[in-house]
Design a protein that fits this description.
Largest sheet: none
Number of helices: 16
CATH class: Mainly Alpha
Structural class: mainly alpha
Helix content: over 70%
CATH architecture: Up-down Bundle
CATH topology: Na+/H+ antiporter like fold
Number of strands: 0
Number of domains: 1
Radius of gyration: 19 Å
Distance between the termini: 18 Å
């Protein structure tokens, strides 16, 4: 039951949104907070580069059908589903929220939760590790490109200046960190707890900066409670559709049950940790708050639903968990 409760970090983010709504930072202070958030994001992606074991990416070459299926779900099926929904129901949400839904669909998979749920479900953990690592690495380059295509198809578009900022603020620090991994990996490994709080404080700072600008721009006039419920329903539909697609596709393609679990959990996730910094780089200050709302809602849904599904998988006949209980 503990895994079905709201993620404590999400509760912190909700509190951050409340504080930004009541006490938004503006003027020179907003510029200082924005600069600090940018520096923290650069450092965050530098650390991601240091942490990523190269052997995880090399391992992705071994079971190529599994990894190709997961990456195709993340970067092809998800975006096409999002684009289809915008075409089918254009008046359901205002454009900034639809842009946020498209951005959600373009994001890479998660790493930690994908691995955790695959482990609970007794799936292919090694395959999930390799796929999630590859997804996050490729996502730095693919997410802005896919988002640009989706946004133009939706009639909005993003600036290529934002793509260039991705290179400078995310890809360059990530690459630098990975090149320095032989010297820094041991230091980072010994400070996992400190670095976890570094990750989370960076996201909190970025969310506060984004929502401060959004509140000043009038986001809560654009997103009343009824529209927020519609957005939550849309996120629930996307998650349900992807879970069904990944499950049926894995069985139709002849994957083992362990590989199916990896496909379901890695293919259905979207990364909040990557999403917030990318949104802040790609979109204007007044739009970021609306853009990250779908990501925050989907993040909690995927944790709660996948926790339940993982337990169901883990208790299947013949599983290791059942034999030990």
């Amino acid at each position: 039951m503990r895994k079905l409760l709201p993620d404590p970090f999400l509760l912190v983010l909700i509190l951050t949104v409340v504080v930004a709504s009541l006490l938004p930072v503006s003027g020179a202070a907003a510029g200082a907070v924005s600069l600090l958030a940018t520096a923290a994001i650069v450092f965050l992606f530098f650390l991601h580069g240091v942490r990523l074991p190269r052997e995880n990416l090399v391992a992705a070459l071994g079971h190529w059908r599994l990894h190709l299926t997961i990456l195709a779900t993340t970067f092809v099926v998800f975006p096409l589903l999002g684009l289809g929904l915008t075409r089918a129901f254009p008046g359901l949400l205002p454009q900034p929220l639809w842009t946020g839904v498209l951005f959600l669909c373009a994001l890479p998979s998660t790493v930690q939760s994908s691995i955790a749920f695959t482990s609970i479900a007794r799936g292919n953990i090694a395959g999930t590790v390799a796929s999630a690592a590859a997804s996050n690495l490729l996502g730095i380059a693919l997410t802005p490109l896919i988002m640009n295509l989706l946004a133009h198809a939706h009639g909005s578009g993003i600036s290529f200046a934002g793509v260039w900022k991705i290179v400078l603020q995310l890809l360059l620090p990530f690459t630098s960190g990975h090149l320095l991994r032989p010297w820094l990996a041991g230091i980072v490994a010994r400070r996992k707890t400190v670095l976890m709080y570094t990750d989370r404080s960076t996201i909190v700072l970025a969310v506060y900066s984004a929502f401060s600008a959004a509140v000043i721009g009038g986001i809560w006039r654009q997103v009343p409670l009824g529209r927020l419920l519609v957005l939550a329903g849309l996120c629930a539909f996307i998650l349900t559709a992807i879970l069904l697609i990944t499950g049926y596709a894995a069985r139709a393609l002849g994957f083992s049950k362990e590989d199916e679990i990896s496909i379901v959990f890695c293919g259905s996730k979207k990364s909040l940790v990557s999403g917030v910094p990318m949104a802040r780089v790609l979109f204007g200050a007044a739009d970021v708050g609306a853009v990250v709302l779908p990501v925050m809602i989907f993040h909690q849904m995927q944790l709660m639903v996948c926790a339940w599904i993982a337990r169901r998988y883990g208790s299947r006949p013949g599983s290791t968990e059942e034999s030990e209980s």
